[in-house]
Amino acid sequence: MVAQADPSNAALSRLSSLHFSVVLLVVSALLMIAHSMGVLPAWLVRLPEAVIPPTAEVLDVVFAFVQNDLGLIHVTRSIAAGLEYLLDATGNILYGKNRFPYLNRVSFLFIESLGPIPWSAVAAGMAVLGFWLGGWRMAILAGGTFVWTAMIGQWDIAMQTMSVLIVAAPIAFLIGLMLGIAAWQWRWVDNAIKPILSVLQTLPFFTYLLPAVIFFKVGPTAAAVATIIYAIPPMILMTTLGLQKVSPDIVEAGKMSGCTRWQMLTRVYIPAARTEILVGVNQVIMLCLAMVVLTAFIGMPGLGAKLLAMMNSFKLGRSFEIGVTIVLLAITLDRLSKAWVVKQPKHWERETPWWERHFLLLLGLGAFAAFYIISQFQTFEILNEVGRKQSWSKGREIDRWIKGVLEIDSIQAVTGWLRWFLNVKVLIPFRNALLWVPTPALIMMVVALAYWLGGRKPAIYAAVFFGIVALSGWWDRSVITLYTVISAVTISMLLGIPMGIMASGNKRLANWVLLTCDSAQTFPSFIYLIPAIMLFGVNDVAVVFSIVIFTMVPLTRYTIEGLRAVPLEMTEAADMSGANALQKLVSVRLPLALPTMAVGFNQAIMFAFFMVIIAAFIGTQDLGQELQRTLAGTDLGKNIVLGINVSLMALTFDMAILEWAKRRKKALGLG
Amino acid sequence: MTEAAPVISAKNVWKLFGPNPKSYLGSMEPNRSFEDIRKDGYIAGVKDVSIDVGRGEMLVIMGLSGSGKSTLVRCFCRLHEITGGTIEVEGQDIMSLGQKELIDLRRRKMGMVFQSFGLLPHRTVLENVAFPLEMRGQERHTRRERALEVIELVGLAGREDYFPRELSGGQQQRVGIARSLVIEPDIWFLDEPFSALDPLIRREMQDEFLRLQGILGKTVVFITHDFDEALRLADRIAIMKDGAVEQCATPGEIVMNPATEYVQKFTEDIDKARVVTVGALARASAHTAAADGNALDSEATIQGLARQLINDTRAFMPVQDKGGALLGTIKRQDALDLLLGAEG
Q1: Does the CA dihedral A301-A302-A303-A309 come out positive or negative?
Q2: pLDDT range class, residue A13, cuts 50, 70, 90
Q3: If we measure between CA atoms, which residue out of A159, A195, A474, A394 comes closest to residue A292?
């Protein structure tokens, strides 16, 4: 309602913003016309090689200097040694294999000698934990996940993954918590951290990997470092948010109780911000899992590596089974940690005996110990380890089945036609068109879009960011990345938004779709490649397809949430004005839901930038491909330049869209 | 008002919110109004307030939201740093206290109750109540004993192990009250303690509060936006508007002689006979010596004595205080006018 206060002014500014965008578009159109007539000088089509600064080389020199001359490598190597020690310990406990020679170091963690823990003991312990957190359903989910993992014959690789996760997640939590507190306490820390966080959150994961490898040794250690860095940002944000939200009454009550500053922090603020901090924990765990799986690209053994190997050799059955395991683990970890968020302490009646108060703890320990002991006997060997022959894996059968299904004529006709249509009629022409556009014209179009959406600030950033991309020397690759993102998100919108609109009409369906989206969002992105490869094989369509399913999740979800949040009295007013369902949707519900939907759209674009890089694995020609190539060597400079390019493009859209959503919400008075 | 030195003494207290309040206040011309100050880009939370609170007195600060009453009480306990003036608590200038001394003052002398309770959600009733004791490092056993004592006092015995969310609003505020009393404070601040409660519960809590205060006899600063509540509880009421105190007097005086138009508006709909005491109407006059017979209790309200005033036909009646000393006489007609409304 704010905008209505001065309609003439608002309209005027709207007009002038359009005006500027139109000017930019006209100039870029002129450039394109000139280009098509062949009169545009070459240096306006693409920046000449000569003006492109040798950023990667300079960075390499800087890194070499920091790494060797300043001795950063010694610092990181000693951190690596400490991490490695922890990883060895968890590795020994969980699957009992020393990854590295492990002879002359005396372990003071005596529990290491208990490893490897029998799978049945872990499953029993997790089931009781699940029961404590969320009753029977959680117990079955948690216990069942671990039983499945063991029975399908993936226990060891799953535990390799988990051994990194249980080191990385607590460290990421602690660092995130401390930085979050610092950012909340001191304004300058907040100011310093914010831009770094937004870059970190859009940086493609390959860019985390190479520095980790160079500074921290190949394998689990580098995997742990990359995972930790990847998982820290949301923890910082949630901590700061939680601390800021503590109600002033509680703060003042603490002060009037005579708390010192330290007591305020530890006894008042942090406990009162419990919910947000635990939500942060949930995100840390989920991001750690997603990243640990992806670290397969730098030689981290475990579920990810196995999945990568299976997909490489096109063993789709086994890939599918590993996918199921990863999904189950993700759902279990997500649900358990979310149950922890909402779990409220319960009071006991006076005189309740000690054992009754701690019944579930005792039960869990008891079950754990019982299964541990039983599985030591020969007869119950299977409770300790599931052998190759005993596992339920049906990899080959599934392979055959998938092949059979895909060979059914009608299905093949559909996928074949889709592949042909998308490739020949849509994707390749679009890509060629984008590649044909002269660099300055494309930049101007992006700036015009940013200005139209978000006004001056996003437009300036768009110009600067895309300018840097042009100067990086990777323009064509960047354009291909952009093309993939735009095509995938467009297709995703055509599917996801109607789906959201349909689902929002029915409360039960909407809840069900939201729950599905919730679960799908917790899956490590890697998973989405499996169906894409299954259906379309290895080509551009599979890449786009995997991005489409990945990005449909936020699009559908925010469409439903936006439509649902439309105030009831507005739809009622529309009803009483005699609007039919379609009129109501177009003139009332959609306009009001649009700001929320824009947030989903933004998330979809961020997800797409993330996924397009992973899809390099299928074989693309964009930045991701180059990035993946750098992993094999030590091209740190090039790796960073490529990563920053992706990040800058993503940030441009992020700023413009979120600014638009913010303004729109304000204009609609939606708070 | 007691004759002994005041417990809290505020002199020309200012609290301004804005970019650079101290220097603004230093250079401000005198007699600028709330609106003038706002035009300069500052909000006067507290505007030149001088007020004393005597030992054992219950001062109620009354005002609508945004009148600065909560700000003022937060200045008394230095949850806010004041911009100008002085505040002394038991003769000690609290603005001169270091961080440690301030914490010590709060740990020993002050208790506070908050509008939305301010309970720590992860602690049981017992742990919430014992919190201030824990902060000052009291040993576990003694703080438990003491907390149980106060929980009993506020009528929550048996609920020690409940968590705040398991209690009703009224019960939660009882926990807040218990917590504020656990350190045996000399000064008790209550910031709209009953505003978040349902009307029926509010009434009940007011009775409970009067009962407790009857036992404890603390120095109380009580904030409310509810004029009835103020009349019911106060020894003295300070009515605030735009950061300044409009009038500070006993309930009877405020009702009988509102100092400003603003105060007048509050008193219009009040049944004065319920508020005004016989003492407030008593005058020393020529009739005093002549009056004889039963003396009236100076602290009783006119309404409380309604029946007697109607039946007793003496034109003038003597009034005496608790000690039995004669204060003066009241004219029956005055009292009846107040009770029934003036004729014509």
Answers
A1: positive
A2: low
A3: A159
* Residues of chain B with C-beta less than 8 angstroms from the C-beta of A247: 116, 118
- Cβ separation B116–A249 shorter than 8 A: yes
Instruction: Report chain A residues whose CB lies below 8 A from the CB of B131.
Output: 257, 267
- Count of CA atoms in the C-beta half-sphere (13 A) of A251: 13
Q: In whole angstroms, how far apart are CA A490 and each of A487, A494, A545, B121?
A: 5, 6, 12, 46
- A598-611 pLDDT per residue, tens: 889 988 998 898 88
Domains of chain B: 55-81+97-270 (3.40.50.300), 273-340 (3.10.580.10)
pLDDT reading at B280 higher than 70: yes
**Sign of the torsion angle spanned by Cα atoms A637, A638, A639, A642:** positive
Residue B220 to residue A226: CA distance in whole angstroms: 59
Give yes or no on whether A12-45+414-668 and A70-105+158-302 have one common fold: yes
Nearest to A345 among B110, B163, B183 (CB): B163
Contacts of B123 in chain A (CB under 8 A): 271
Q: Give B77's contacts (C-beta < 8 A, 6+ positions apart).
A: A256, B106, B110, B112, B189
What DSSP state is assigned to residue A258?
T
Quick one: which H or E segment has residue B244?
Answer: strand B244-249
For the domain made up of A70-105+158-302, give the CATH fold: MetI-like fold (1.10.3720)
Q: Which of B38, B106, B281, B231 is nearest to A257 (CA)?
A: B106
Alpha-carbon distance of B253 to B259, in angstroms, equals 9
Least CA distance to B135: which residue of chain A? Answer: A259
pLDDT per position as a tens digit, A247-301:
999 999 999 998 999 999 999 999 999 999 999 999 999 989 988 888 888 888 8
How many CB contacts within 8 angstroms connect chain A with chain B?
83
CATH number of A12-45+414-668: 1.10.3720.10
User: Which residues, other chains included, contact A108 with Cβ-Cβ below 8 Å and sequence gap of 6+?
Assistant: none
Touching check for A272 and chain B: CB below 8 Å? yes
User: What pLDDT score does A8 carry?
Assistant: 52
Alpha carbon separation from A613 to A479, A482, A491, A620 (Å, rounded): 13, 11, 18, 9
What pLDDT score does A53 carry? Answer: 83
Q: Pick the more confident residue, A472 or A406.
A: A472
